[in-house]
Amino acid sequence: MAVCADGHQTQATDYCDVCGSALTGVPAADPADLRLCPACSVPTSGRFCENCGYDSALPAPPPPRTDSPAADLRGTADARETVWVARVFADREFYDRVQARKGPDADRVAFPGFYPERRIELRGSEFLIGKRSASQGIVPEIDLGIAPADPGVSRAHALLRVGTDGSLTVTDLGSTNGTSLDGTETPLSPQVPLPLRAGSRLHVGGWTTITIDTLS
User: Fold this and answer.
1) Where is the FHA domain (predicted)?
2) Disulfide check for 202: which of 112, 171, 178, 210 has CB 3.0–4.6 Å away?
3) Tens digits of per-residue pLDDT, 95-144?
4) pLDDT digits over 139-171, tens only?
């Protein structure tokens, strides 16, 4: 059994098992015997890492946590890189369906002769769909009260919400004429969030369709 300079008996032949000091006369380690230190990843051959002093006889250090706050922030940042876009336009097909089924206010809703399409980037977390009302303090991010306005749209009609994971949902806020999705006639249940995807189509009022997409 080898003895280090401080008099400790050691079974190792390169570094003392007790104090970690190098044993004199130890030949240089064969590169083939080198391994990576579990703590700092520097090549080492003895029990104690020459770089950080890690004792290889101890249990290996745990891997970095993937559920740490920093990891959560990275995941949220990656999710937030997705930017949703709402495309608002006058939809003749939807208007014809409303007229055919004699929907609410159908008799007073006329299809606009000209309605410029609008694209609204959804940068944030919540986006109200409705009509501006100074008296009621309603300022929707997607304002459908701009002329020519759809008379079938409520002041506070529906809400788009972007989750922390980047997902998008729509919630009808109890609108008078309801909100439907992807050409269906069945209105969404009020106050119940519904997941959306790229390509989803929201139908509100008497002729307004909002198509959801991602910013390319």
Assistant:
1) 127-186
2) 210
3) 999 999 887 677 888 999 999 999 999 999 999 999 999 888 999 999 99
4) 999 999 999 999 999 999 999 999 999 999 999
According to CATH, the topology of domain 84-105+114-214 is Tumour Suppressor Smad4 (2.60.200)
Half-sphere exposure (Cβ direction) of 35: Cα atoms closer than 13 Å? 11
Mean pLDDT of 14-19: 66
- The full set of domain ranges for the chain reads 84-105+114-214
